[in-house]
Amino acid sequence: MDRASDFQHYYLELSSEPVRFDAVSQLTNVFFDDAKQQVFAVRSGGATGIVVKSANDVQNISFCMEDRGTIRSIKFAPDNQVLAVQRNEIAVEFVPFNANNQPNVTDMLVHQGKNTIYGFVWVHDRQVALISNAGVEIFQINLEKRTLKSVKSLNSSVSWFSFCPPSNFALLSSNNGSILTPVLLKPSTITKLPRLELGAGQSCSGRDVTLAQLYGTNAIMILKQLQNRQFEVVIYLLNGPGLAPKKSHILRLGQNGRFAMNIVDDVVVVHHQATATSMLFDIALGGGEMDANSGAVIHQPIIPAKPIKPFALEVPSISLDGKTVNCDLYSQHWVLFQPNIVIDAKLGCLWYVLLKLNSLCTLITDRIRLVEFLLQRSDGKSALLNVLKEMMGTNYSGTMLPVIETVFNKLNALYKSVLDNELQSQMALMALSSKSQSQKHVVTPRVLIDQADMYTAVFSCITEAEQLGKILLLYLHSLARHGIAPSHELSKQIVIDLVNNKQFDTLQNLLKYSALNESKPLACFLLSLSNKHPSISQMALDMLARLNANEIILEVLLERGQVIEALRIAKQMPGADSLPARKYLEAAFKTKDPLVFHSVYSFFQAKNIRVRGSPDFLKHEQCGEYVQHYQTLISTQCL
């Protein structure tokens, strides 16, 4: 197996361009702010320089500060105008920065407390929350007045805390880690949520807890060791305001040792250091067994654990071409941050952990499971379309039809929900009677495969005619099952494909059961293809009849010389007594059939007698030439 194909068997990789910073050494310490995703490389306590690099933008900040003691934590305010530095357990410094990104140390403010400060988080450009063993307190920083003012506090016994920057919620631990209290931190506001009690004899430490968002819901993930010494991850979801965290999912790891977690596009990635592998879990995939005690869904890894794709790092070299070295993956120097950040302080690198969807499409052999998985990925559409193309094209077999049918139903169930939401949204918008009412936000799915996608990316690539017919019938049946009308474009393209492949019986069945989007334009398009096969014209007329498009039917019949049939239909229509005589006589004349002309002429004579009491045509009807033709036929005894 060559190296390129070997790499296809890795389903995780590190971002190709890591953020490089000064590695940890005797003179350099490294800190990371997961809220702003900034790396601080502090040399000699700041005396010989602090370099701040961001994973989100290209601007770096470099400055020097007096070495006032060992730094425990360092973070910029959201606007980078104030730097907070914690050097000991009871104090935090706030240093303002000027427009040139340089510190004004002389204007520094210091909060000196009595309690042990575990850490701090910024909740606004000028508000910071300090978390201590006595609770949480938010301070307002006024640089002009050089004051720190407490604006909100929550008293609580705290032994450690964890923080989730995307949703601004902190988890406060008390009672030796057996009681966990989530709190929302916003400007001047601390909202205490119902606490999580782990139960008698159960507790956890800060390193066992990971806070994250899973599919938009705040989650508390706790690493727990079982009696058989293997580990599992218990996920508690904060489903709504006022609701206690609910034990919702259990991830069975089947291993013991050291673990760490990332969230990559809502997939829980559990890294195992001893085996240097990673496991993938997706809580959106159903089908798992239920925990008898809690009702939580038990999940196994999506596929067997595999290592992250090897990464070759460029290192400085005397030669101009440089050289690369393979990084030590799952190193003891790795530190993980949410959602998907890996930092190797010894190498001086920050990476993002990424999913390799193309590899997963090969490794996940259950096609239905794979489709469910790809529907939940933010960039899964192209990969999913490729999977569908492969299922119905290169790897197609008759035994795949039940699987394809199930896949169609999953795609169209989602498609239908979007159509219904759009309809409800439009109705709600129309019903708004005042500006005070707000329209409900419609959640758009990450991956939506509509009819146009299916035709352009999948159906148009199927070359075998019989295979195409079967798959189209399955898809149209699935659309009908979910109450989705086939689009005109899809119907038209299906007609083209079936006619080109001479699948006239399949086309007739589709039309017979109204599986296509019947419309006047589609019927007219069918008529334009009538030279391909004699049956197509009748298919079009039958469709027009179902649409009650009698005017078009009459025009078609007249053009084809079927004047008697046209009259038969016209007599049953409203306004039959006002039919244009010249139009029908002209069509009859063009047939060059004396019997047809006589029948039509006699029909209009009878109509004139019934309406006006005389068989003669009026002058404005302009039928003189046809009256003469009739008389000629009589005189020459052609009738």
Share of helical residues: 25-40%
Count of DSSP strands: 32
User: For the report, how would you describe the main beta sheet?
Assistant: 5 strands, antiparallel
Task: Give the number of helices.
Answer: 16
Report the structural category.
alpha+beta
Q: How would you sum up this structure in a few lines?
A:
With 639 residues, this protein is of the alpha+beta class. Helices cover 30% and strands 27% of the residues.
Can you describe what's shown?
The chain has 639 residues and is α+β, with helices and mostly antiparallel strands. It contains 16 helices and 32 strands. Strands 1, 2, 30, 31 and 32 form a five-stranded antiparallel beta sheet that branches. A hairpin with a 6-residue loop joins strand 4 (38-43) and strand 5. Helix 5 (401-431) crosses helix 7 (465-481), helix 12 (550-559) runs antiparallel to helix 13 (563-571) and helix 15 (594-612) packs across helix 16. The protein is elongated, with a radius of gyration of 37 Å.
What secondary-structure arrangement, pairings included, does this model have?
Blueprint: H1 3-7, E1 12-14, E2 19-20, E3 28-33, E4 38-43, E5 50-54, E6 61-63, E7 73-76, E8 82-86, E9 91-96, E10 109-112, E11 117-124, E12 127-132, E13 135-142, E14 147-155, E15 160-164, E16 169-174, E17 179-186, E18 189-192, E19 196-197, E20 209-214, E21 217-225, E22 231-238, E23 246-252, E24 259-264, E25 267-272, E26 277-281, E27 297-299, E28 312-315, E29 323-326, E30 334-337, E31 341-344, E32 349-355, H2 357-363, H3 367-375, H4 381-392, H5 401-431, H6 451-457, H7 465-481, H8 488-500, H9 504-512, H10 520-528, H11 534-546, H12 550-559, H13 563-571, H14 581-591, H15 594-612, H16 624-635
Parallel strand pairs: 23-27
Antiparallel strand pairs: 1-32, 2-32, 3-4, 4-5, 5-6, 7-8, 8-9, 9-10, 11-12, 12-13, 13-14, 15-16, 16-17, 17-18, 17-19, 20-21, 21-22, 22-23, 24-25, 25-26, 28-29, 30-31, 31-32
Helix pairs in contact: 3-4, 3-5, 5-7, 8-10, 10-11, 12-13, 14-15, 15-16
